[in-house]
Inverse folding.
């Protein structure tokens, strides 16, 4: 599983969300919005991962209009971003069973960002 392009994140999020049959439950625009939120949250927790972007004062805002744009991120943290996307999307569900799963994904995002890697 390569997480390089916006479309890769959308496709892999759909796998974890069990949302692979059209009509989709979650619109692409919501998934890409969660991707943008993940990058913003990541920058708050680990500014070292986006230092060059922080110097310019703004982040790349990804869009469904450009699904083949590369998401510039260290390969070691791409899975964490995916976890954030899935957790963020599931937090909005009104099913009680989704709440614990959403929290688990968000906690996984945090632990992967804050746990030192070799």
């Amino acid at each position: 599983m390569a997480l390089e392009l916006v479309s890769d994140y959308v496709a892999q999020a759909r796998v974890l969300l069990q949302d692979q049959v059209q009509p989709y439950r979650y619109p692409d625009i919501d998934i890409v919005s969660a991707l943008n939120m993940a990058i913003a949250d990541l920058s708050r927790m680990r500014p070292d991962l986006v230092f060059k972007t922080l110097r310019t004062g703004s982040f790349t805002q990804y869009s469904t209009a450009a699904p083949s744009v590369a998401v510039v991120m260290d390969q070691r943290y791409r899975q964490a971003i995916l976890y954030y996307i899935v957790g963020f999307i599931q937090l909005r569900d009104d099913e009680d069973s989704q709440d614990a799963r959403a929290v688990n994904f968000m906690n996984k995002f945090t632990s992967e960002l804050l746990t030192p890697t070799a």
Remarks:
- The CA atoms of residues 36 and 62 lie 6 Å apart.
